[in-house]
Write a structure and sequence with these properties.
Layout lengths: L4 E3 L2 E4 L4 E6 L2 H4 L4 E6 L6 E6 L6 E3 L7 E6 L4 E6 L8 E7 L9 H6 L5 E2 L3 E6 L1
Parallel strand pairs: 2-11
Antiparallel strand pairs: 1-3, 3-8, 4-5, 4-9, 5-6, 7-8, 9-10, 9-11
Amino acid sequence: QVQLVESGGGLVQAGGSLRLSCVASARTTSNNAMGWFRRAPGREREGISCISNGDERTYYSNFVKGRFTISRDNAKNMVYLQMNSLESEDTAVYYCAALRSRDRIITPRTMCVQNITDYWGQGTQVTVTS
């Protein structure tokens, strides 16, 4: 199992910012897309933002587009999610997700929309107060 270690969650007031970090195995960061998913109470897990490996293509959910920015640093085997202008509706457990090595390319949109996650972390709680 690929190890994913997340950090950066916490309690923040509406309008504030948080930066989530995730360190993953080298073979995942060098091969395929990675992403951030979240699960709010009573809701299914949703793909928030995913990013490709080589061409830096990205996908954002309409709920976070314009407020969140995903990026990756392959040299450090890390993926980040910069979250600005946080809203109370963003309160959820956030998960870093990765894909196993594949012959075919899975696009960021496909990964997020179809909820394709071979590995995910334990999650980090993000709580936004009103």
